[in-house]
Design brief:
By secondary structure, the protein is an alpha+beta fold. It has six helices and five strands.
């Protein structure tokens, strides 16, 4: 029998999550050298690593807020995103693939699918996925499921367009990599942050 599903270990508590994020953050700041297999080859750690890279790419486009109505991301927001990444990367339920060979059993974990959803959403320009969930009986082939996710967008980017682009990217990824029967993909934009304004070049400017 072919079973591709790892054993789901007990979930870490909040302190363990914070320690893991800190360790992975330090590894990223060091340029990912020397190579650390405990991070690079672990699905949960890789999910955190990808999100930290994505956060880093967006951080250059964010400012320290002057407007209370559109604050720049703070530590609690960052911890919330990374906490969601850590929890959602855990294996969760087994999602079966169909097989034409008797006795063969091929699976993908729910955590892996959530990671797929997150990567697809994050691929949309100016968007960072916050939380995502799969609602429905994924263990029953053919059962209808609903995908729900939250996201942050940069100020100045159309919220409506961003939600549609995320929905399309997630739908395409799920069609390519799973056999889930997805009846809806619900995208909620929960935060908007201001993009950094370009600095004026005053060198050589007339007085």
């Amino acid at each position: 029998m072919n079973d591709l599903t790892p054993i789901d270990p007990p979930g870490p508590d909040a302190d363990d999550e914070n320690d893991a994020v800190e360790r992975i953050s330090e590894y990223l700041e060091a340029g990912r050298v020397p190579y650390d297999p405990s991070i690079e080859e672990d699905p949960e750690a890789r999910a955190i690593l990808r999100s930290l890279i994505r956060l880093g790419s967006l951080s250059g486009e964010l400012i320290e807020a002057d407007a209370a109505s559109l604050p720049a991301p703070d530590d609690s927001w960052l911890k919330g995103v990374l906490g969601a990444v850590t929890r959602e990367a855990r294996s969760g339920r087994d999602i079966p693939f169909s097989s034409t060979e008797p006795g063969d059993r091929f699976l993908i974990t729910e955590g892996a699918v959530r990671g797929l959803i997150r990567d697809a959403g994050d691929s949309v320009e100016g968007v960072l996925v916050g939380r995502c969930s799969i609602e429905g009986d994924v263990t029953d082939p053919g059962a209808e499921v609903t995908i729900s996710l939250t996201a942050t967008v940069l100020y100045g980017i159309s919220i409506t367009d961003s939600a549609e682009h995320v929905r399309a990217a997630v739908h395409s990824a799920l069609l390519r990599h799973t056999e889930l029967t997805v009846v809806s993909i619900d995208v909620e934009i929960t935060d908007v942050f201001i993009a950094r304004a370009p600095k004026a070049d005053t060198e050589g400017a007339p007085s």
